[in-house]
Amino acid sequence: MKRIITISLYGVLCLLFINSAFAQNVTVKGTVKDATTGETLIGVSIAVQGTQTGTQTGPDGTYTISAPANGNLAVSYIGYASQTVAVNGQNTVNISLKAQSNELQQVVVVGYGTQRKIDVTGSVASVKGEEISKQASVNPVGALQGKVAGVQITNNGSPGASPQITIRGLGTIYGATNVLYVVDGVWYDDISFVNPADVENISILKDASSTAIYGLRAANGVVLVTTKRGKKNSTKVDYNGYAGWQTVTNPVKMANATEYATIINELYALGGKSPLFSDPNSYGKGTDWYGQGLRDAFVTNHQVSVNGGGEKSTYNMSLGYLSQDGNVRGNNYERFTARIVNDIEPVKNLKFGFNIGGLYSKSKDIPGGIFHELYSAAPVVPVYYADGSYGDPNDFNLGSNPAFNPQVTLDYFNQKSQNYRFNGNVYGELKFLKNFTFKTSLGGDIGQAESRNYSPVYAATLTQRNTISVLGVNRTETRNWIVENTLSYSNKVQDHSFTVLLGQTAQRNKSYSLTARAQNVPYGSEGDLYLTLGDQDSRFISDGGGLTTSVSYFGRVNYSFKDRYLLNASLRADANSGFYGANLWAYLPSIGAGWVVSNESFMKDQELFNTLKIKGSWGKVGNANVPRNPTIQEVTQIPQYAAIFGVDQQLYTGANIASFVPPTIVIERGVGTDIGIEASMLNSRLTIEADYYNRNTNQAIFGIPILQSLGANVSRIVGNQAQFRNTGFEFSAGWRDKVGKDFSYSLSGNFSINNNKVAEVVTGLNPIYAGGNGITNGALATRTVLGRPIGEFYGYKVDGIFQTAEEVAQSLQTSAKPGDFKYVDTNGDGILDSRDRVALGNPNPKYFYGFNTSFNYKNFDLALDFQGVAGVSIYNANIAYRFGNENFTKDFYDNRWHGAGTSNTYPSADVGSTSNSAPNSFYVQSGAYFRVRNIQFGYTLPGNWLSKWKIQRIRLYANAQNPINIFSYKGFNPEVGGAPTEAGIDANVYPLYATYNFGVNVSF
What we know:
The protein is mainly beta. It contains 11 helices and 53 strands. It has a 22-stranded antiparallel β-barrel. A 5-stranded mixed β-sheet has the order 10-15-16-13-14. Strands 3-2-5-6 form a 4-stranded antiparallel β-sheet, with no helix packed on it. β19 and β20 form a beta hairpin.
C-alpha cells in the first residue's frame, strides 16, 4: 500500500513538473503573410489568447511575442479571416491569413503606395487584371469601358489606336486632355505598349485629393497600372491565346443606283437643270461601295508568360503577339510585346529589381478620308469595267464631286508605319530602423515612330491620276526619363496608426520629329525607296521638337485613430521649364478625411453593416500641357501695306503686326471636392459606393477677342481668363454570393451623372466658335460660351420644310425654295439672321452606366457585361457634307421631300446648298446607346484529366464583344470622340464592329 502511495505521489509530481514546464513562456517569432499573394502584412494584431498580452506586425510583417509554450495566439487583421494558432512549444510560428470577400477591406494601389480600401478618403476605383483579360481589347484602357463610375471610354475602331478616356468630365479647351498613366512607377501619355495579359491591376484616381500627389500632370485624372510580378517558391508557365474575326455592326445602308439616279435628277430639277440620267431604273442596284470597301477582319492574339522565383528572387517574363486586320480592305496592324520583371532580395530589408518592356508594331495604313469616300461614291459607277479597267465617275458626267472611285483610292494608297518602344525602370528599396523605407527609382521611355508614304505614277480615271511620284517619310523620336526618391515612415502606437511619405522627382521629356519628301523616286521594291533617288531640286526637309524638364517635391501623411477616424493630407511643389518667373512653381495641396462608422462602439450590436464609411476630400491639381507663350512678335509685309508717295510716285513698302503676344500664360489649376459614402452589408455580400463631386478648372485658357482694326491676322488670342466646372454624382453597387458548393455569382453596376459648363469668363459672353469638320460653306457647328457646356452644338432651329412657293413668299426666308428647311425666328425680331441661332445639343454625355455579371457553376463560367450612355448628342455632318452629286443614305432617300406634302421633316435633295447645310437641329441626333459590351462563356477541364500531363489548368472559352448595339443615331457609330470644341461631329468615323473569338488559357 505504501508503495502504491509513493508511486502515485511520484506520478502527480511528474505531471505537475510537466505542466509547469509547458506553462513557462517562450519567445515566439514569425512572419504574417497574405495566403494568396505571399505579401507580408503590416499592423496585424497578435494576442495571447485569454490574456492581455499582445503585439502587432511591423513594416516587414514580422512579430515577436512572449507566450506559454502550450498557449494559443489569436490573430486578427481587418479584411482577413481571424485565426487561432497553437504555439506547441515552438519558437517560430509563421502565419498565413486568408482575405475576406469584402471589397472595402481589399488593398488598392494609390499614388506612391498602397492602402486598404477602407482607409482611402478620396475616390479610387480598382479593376483586376483578370477582368481586363476577359475582354478582346488590344489596349487595357478599352477593357475598362462600363466598369468604373465616372470614367468615359471612347474606343477608336482603327487597329492599334488608343481609346480616349475622360474622367469626371472635360476640364480644358486648349490644354492637353489626356490622363496621366503610371505603369509600375513610370509616367506615360498612353499605354498602347502594355499587353492586357500583363496587367495585374488598374487603379483609377478620380478626385483631386487622390491625384494631387502627381501635381502638374494630374488635372485630367491618373490611371495606375501594376503589371504582374513573380511569386516566391513557384514556377508557372501560362499561355493565353485567341483567334476570331471582327465584323461591322449596324451598317448604314446607302441608296442603290436606281435610287441615286432618281434623287440626283431631282437635285438637277431643283437647280433648273435637265435630268442627268434618262432612265434611272436601268442602273439596277449598282455598286454597294461599303460592301466593296469593308470586310470581315481576322484578329488573333497570343501571350506566353513564365512566372516564379525562390526565397530571394522572383521573376515574370512574357512575350506577346497581336495581328489585327482592319475592317477596311488592306488595313492591318501587328504588335510584338515583351516584358521582363525581376525582384531580388539578397538580404533581409534590402530589395532591388527592374521592370523592362518593349514593343514593336507595324501597320499598313488606309487613306484618312476613305470613309467619306465610301459614303459619297456614286453607286452607278462600277468598281471595274468588263475590260478590267476602273469604273470612272467622269464617264457618267457626275462633275467634280464625287469624281472618285474608292477602290482606286485604296489600291494606290501606299503607306506603312512602324513603332519602336523601350521602357521600364530599375529600383532599389531599403528598410531600416524598423519603420523606415527608402526607395529610389530610375525609369525611362524611348520611342521612335516612323511612317512612309509613296504615291506612284498612275492613271486610273480621268481625275484619279498622278504624273509625278512622291516619297514622304516622317520620324518622331521620344526620349523621356524620370528619377524618383521616396522615404516613408510607418508605425502604430497604441490606437494611432500613421504613415509619412516624403519624395522628390526629376523629369525630362524630349521629342524630335523629322519630315522629308522627294519627287520622282522609282519604286522597284520596298528597298528602293530612298529620298536620294528622287530629283534633287524637289527634296524637302523640315524638323521640330520640344524639351521640357521639371522638378518636384512632395509629402503625404496618412493617419488613423482606432481604425475609425482617418486623415490624409499631401502637398506637392512642381516646377516646369515651360514657365518662368513667379509662375515657375506651383504648390498643390490636398486633404481628405473619413469616418469608419462601423467601428464605433454603438455599431457593435447591429447586423446590417459590415463596414460603413463616410468620407470627404479637397485638393488642387495642375495642367502644365497648355500653349506656351510665343517669344517673337510677328510682323508681315504684304502688298496691301504698300503706298506711293511724292512727286516721283515712289513705292514704299509698309509693315504691320501680324499677331500679338498674349498675356503671360500660366498652368491651368484644377480644384476638386468630393463627398462620399462606402458600405458593405449582409455579410459583405453587398457593397455600395456613392460620391458627389465638384471639379473646377481655374485660370482656364479661353479665347480673348481683339479688334480687327488693329490689323492682326487673327481675331483672338488666348489667356488664363475662364473657369470650367464639372459637377456630378457617381453610384456603384456589387453583390457577391455562393449558392451551395458548386454555384457562385457576382453582380455589379455603376451609374454616373456629369454636368459640364463654362462657369466664368473674364471678358463675358464672347464665344469660341469651332466645329468645322465636315461642315460646308465655312460654317462652324459648335459654340463655347459662358454658362453653357464646352463645345455645345449651335445653329438654327428647324420648324419643318417649306412645301410651296407661296409658303416661302409669306416667310422671313424669301430666298428659300420649296424643300428647304424652315428656320425659327427665335428672338422674334422679324429678321432671320445669325442672331437666331440657339443651342442644339451637348456632345458631352450627361449619363453613362455599366452592368457587369459573373456566374460560375462547377467547371463552367459565364460573364456578361453591358454598357451605355445617354443625354448626349451627335452632329451628323455626313448628310450635308457634299459639294455636288454625292450619294445619299437609304434613310434620307425614303424620307426626303420631293413634292408638296411628301415630307415635313427631311429636306429635298438640295441639302448641300448654303442655307440647308447651315448648322441646324436636323443634323443633331441623339448619341445615346445601350450595348452588350462583352459575353464570355468558358469551361475549365477537370484537374484529374490533366495531372498525368503535368498541366495545372486548361480553360476553353468563346467570346463576343459588342455583339448587340442599340441606338437611334442614323450613322455608323454613336461613339464619336474628338478635341474639346470638335467633339461629337461625325464626318469620317470608323464603323462600329463586333469581335467574335475563341480562346484558350493553359497553365503548366
